[in-house]
Structure formats: C-alpha cells, structure tokens
Amino acid sequence: MSMKESMKHLFLTAILFGAIRTAAQDVVITKRGSERIALDDSGLSASAEGASAVFARTLRADLARSGWFETVGPGRGEFRLSGTATARSEAVEARLQVVNTATGRSLLAREYRSAVAEARRLAHVAADEIVEAVTGRPGFASSRLAVIGKRGTAKELFICDSDGENLRQITRDNTISLYPRWSPDGKRIVYTSYLKRFPDVLMIDLTQGQRTRLAAFPGLNAGGAMSPDGRFVALILSRDGNPELYVRRLQDGMLTRLTNTPRAAEASPSWSPDGNHIVYVSDVTGRPHLYIIGREGGAPRRLTMRGSENVAPDWGRNGLIAHAQNVGGRYQLAITDPATGETRTLGSDGADWEDPSWARDGRHLAAVRKAGGRSGVYLVDIRGSDPVPLLTTGDWFSPAWSP
Amino acid sequence: MMKWRGWYTLLSVVLMVGAASGCKSWRRGRTPDAGPGGTGVVVDPEFGIQDVGMGDERIEGAPLAVKFEPVYFDYDSSQVRPSERPKIEKVADYLRANSRLRLIIEGHCDERGSAEYNLALGERRALAIRAYLTGLGIDPSIIQTVSYGEERPAAEGTGEAVWRLNRRGEFVIIQ
C-alpha cells in the first residue's frame, strides 16, 4: 500500500468515526477532482416491480445524479453497494451495505423502512446517507425544490422532489407569485405575491398551511430572504420613495435600511452563510452588478466587474456566490468567490441560463434555462457534467433548493 | 509510513469491534418523514391574518374605466422622456378636475434581463411618473405605485417593436 493510499484509507476511517471530517472532505475532493468513484451496485437486489423496485430504481438514479459515482461491474468497484429491498403489505424495507473493496471495511450498514407510498422518499434518504458515507459530503437527494410554475396568466408556487418528481401545487391564488426562498429550518417559504393587488412579501408555513405578510408597504415589497439564524428577513422596499435594501427583524417588525441610492434600484438579496453580509444587485453604475454590504449597513463593496450585467445571486453554504452573468447578450451561470473576487463562468449552450440556486452538496445548482420562448428548470453540476432536466413540461421559474 | 500504518491498524481494530457488535441489529437509517411540504399542503385561501405591523395604508377601491395613454421608456431607463411628458400632464389635469379620485401607477418592463431586477426597474419607472405628477402640484398622498416587472406585457413576442410597447407606465384611476 502506497503512502497516498494508506493516507486515504486513514481518512476514510476517520469519516466513519466522525473525526477530522473537514480534512477528510478536502482529501476526497482534491483527490477525486471531476473523476468519478467506481461503484459496484450489482449486489443490490429488489423485485422487478412494486415498491421495492421503485426504491431500488430511485436509489440508483439518485446515486447517478449525485455526480460522484460511475457504476461498474462486479469486482471492479472501489466501493460495493449491496443489499435487498423488499415490500410486504404496507411497508417497504431495505438493508443496505457499502464496503470499501480494497480494505473490506464497511462504511455503512443500515436498515431503512417506510410506508409503501414513501418508497421514493426512503430511497432519497438512503442515497444521501450513502453519498455522505463515501464522500464525507452531504447529498441533496432528499432536499426539495420550491419553484414557480405558469398556470394560464397566473404564476403559482410549487414544490417537487430533487428529481423533479412528486410535484405539488402550493398556492392556488390565480395571481402572480414570485421568487420563493426557504427558511433555514426548511419549514417555511418566503416569496412575493400579488394576492392583494400589490406585491407583498408573504411567508407560508408549510406545516400549518398558514400565511403571514412580512411586508406590505405602499409600493414595492420583494426580495424576501430569511437570515441564516431565521430572525431577520432581507427585503427590497420602495416605501421611502425608491427601491432600497432593508432588513426587518421578524420578532417586532423593526426595519433597518441598508442602502441609500436615490438614482438606482436594488434587487435580489442573499445572505452570507454566517449571516453577517448580504449580496445583492444594484444598478448604481447604470448596469446591474453584484454588491456586498454588512448586515447593519455601511459602505457596500462592488463584487463583479466583468460582463455587462451580473444578477440573481445565491450565496451558498460553501461560501461561493452563484449568479447569472450577461456576456454578449446571453446569460450564463457564473460562480464568484467573494474572498478573491474571481469569477468562473459555466459556459453556454446558446440558451440563457438564469436564477441559480445551490443544492446542499455545494456542487450542484438548480437553474432556469430559457430557449425558444420556453423556460425549464435544470440540474447543473458545476464540475461540468451535462445539465439534467428536472422540470421541462410547461414553463418554470426561480428554483430554490430547500436546506 | 509505519506511523500511519500503525494508526490505521489500530483504527481498523476498533472499527471491527464496533462493526461486530453492530451486526446483530442493523443500524436504522434516517426515517423519511413526509417533511414540510412533503404531502399536500393546503394554504389558507382566506389569508390575511398575522401582519407584522405594516404602517401606511394602501389605496383601495374600484378602478374607473377612464383610460390614459401609457408612458413609454427607453431600455433599462426609468427617465421620463420629454416626448412623454404631455401624457402625464393630461393625467394631472384630470386629477385636478376630479379632486376626490386617486391614482395607481403601474410600472412595466420588457422581457429582457433578470425578472427580479426588472421588478425594481418597473417600480422606478412608476415612481418617476409619480415624481413628475407631484412636480406638477398633484398631492403625493393620492398616488401609489405598483411594479409588475416583466410579468404583464402589453404585447407578446420578442424584438424591439414589441419590447418598446412593454417598457411603460400605465394609469389606473381609483374611485
């Protein structure tokens, strides 16, 4: 065993013990790059149909979508996934094991059980645990997407699973609903609605089905984004005569105005992972670009210099800001590191790519692809695999991953 | 090298002991609850409850059928062009002659650009028209703005012939 290999194994062992997890992640990431881990899943057995087949099929699709694995034949995998999925009467049950084939060590040996109707959901949960056991990084199969769908002349709020399945309509207001964003606990969605004729920022409690108005001042109320601690909401309001960035304390409604740009518009706030800063769009130079400001205000710092426009930022938990950049009249997805100011664009296929949202693995984005008058939601691997369509029947906008 | 191997062996032994004791009953994986939004959420259609202290009132009431010409804007601009001013002056005359009425100004954008940014741009267009009206002596408290961004185009399609019709401000007189 080479030094490098035994280092790797040490680190993988460490993952199991939950120790020096950060170091383990770094090793996996830098070692793997865009290569895929060879996974032998030939030992995973299930019935040809029924709930156990749904479970196995969903699990395999999730592992492929995670971007980490390529499936290989028996005996050729770095890791082996085996187990059985069975369905009897009301329940689906699975026993799964992941083994490092070089060492014979078991990374995961778990039992999963749910109602038959939840077989897909169960598979998403198992897929995330497998991804985390092997790579040390969270999976996103069990997260959900909030998304806006067009229904006639109206736009309504929907939620679907990470694979675009299980689509549910949340609002039936027959009005315009825009820009959903999740609360940090994943139980609420903040968005903009014209239910009362004017754009208000509303919050839907998904467990209760109740709505609260977070901002309904004269003029524009938009951009609602909850802080990582859940105590504040960033807003774009024009109550003082011009669209500006504000922060509102939810407990008592106290407003703090952060920007003062009488000749410019602000839009699209997104909080830093530590909650100390907000990235937003401002056209104070005449064109929309990204700026960062402290949560209490102060002097904003211009972040993006390239491209004719930089819009729709989403500050990920990985510290990177995903956004759309206009280059030569086309919008491309771009990722800017606020620490260095460096921007990487993800390239173009001739379509417009807009409104990116980080998945919790810090590797994938959901984004809108606009082409030929149609608007669909795709999953984009920032390491360069082909985008995967998630919602392409009908027109879809503003995807947001749940935490 | 030997140092790493030694650690590795030690950890493996600990692991095997752990695995052996865990073999009788498999560890339970996370149980999938339906989760928030997992099942059909029924959103209260009556909504309108727990407001967080809103402050100023909004203009409410039925719109009148009276029509005014839309005010058109240049691309990415919220400046009222001199050629558009007479349209706003007509509205000012009407409001002066009908002193009990109020006005909602709608701001609109063409489909190009970020939809969320366009919402702010549309608001600036409506506010620019409002500022011109108040400059003509109209009481600002009877005028409110609503931006639709690119959500309510006047004309469907693409190209400048369509876009120039969509970059606009519209007037809704409220009883």
* Strand runs of chain B, count: 5
Q: Give the % helix of chain A.
A: 10-25%
**Most residues in contact: chain pair:** A-B, 99 and 65 residues
What average pLDDT do the residues of chain A reach?
90
Short summary:
Chain A is mainly beta. Chain A has helices at 3-16, 21-32, 51-65, 119-135, and strands at 37-46, 69-72, 79-88, 91-100, 105-115, 144-151, 154-161, 168-169, 177-182, 188-196, 198-205, 210-215, 221-226, 232-237, 244-249, 255-257, 266-271, 277-282, 289-294, 297-302, 309-315, 321-327, 330-336, 343-345, 352-358, 364-371, 374-381, 388-391, 396-401. In chain A, a hairpin with a 1-residue loop joins strand 10 (188-196) and strand 11 (198-205).
Question: Could you please describe the fold and organization of this structure?
Answer:
The complex is a heterodimer of chains A (403) and B (175). Chain A has two domains: 38-135, Rossmann fold, CATH 3.40.50.10070; 144-401, Neuraminidase. Chain A has four helices and 29 strands. Chain A has helices at 3-16, 21-32, 51-65, 119-135; strands at 37-46, 69-72, 79-88, 91-100, 105-115, 144-151, 154-161, 168-169, 177-182, 188-196, 198-205, 210-215, 221-226, 232-237, 244-249, 255-257, 266-271, 277-282, 289-294, 297-302, 309-315, 321-327, 330-336, 343-345, 352-358, 364-371, 374-381, 388-391, 396-401. In chain A, strand 27 (374-381) and strand 28 (388-391) form a beta hairpin. Chain A starts with a helix and ends with a strand. Chain B has 175 residues and is of the alpha+beta class. Chain B contains four helices and five strands, in the order H-E-E-H-E-H-E-H-E. Chain B has helices spanning 2-22, 85-97, 115-135, 160-166; strands spanning 27-28, 71-72, 102-108, 143-149, 168-174. The longest helix of chain B is centred in the N-terminal third of the chain and has 21 residues, at 2-22. The N and C termini of chain B lie far apart (86 Å). The interface between A and B is large, with 99 and 65 residues.
